Amino acid sequence: MLKRRRTTHKFKRNVIYSTATRRRIMLRNTHKKVIWRRRLFAMQLMEAQETPATPVV
Question: Which helix (H) or strand (E) holds 28?
Answer without folding.
Answer: helix 20-50
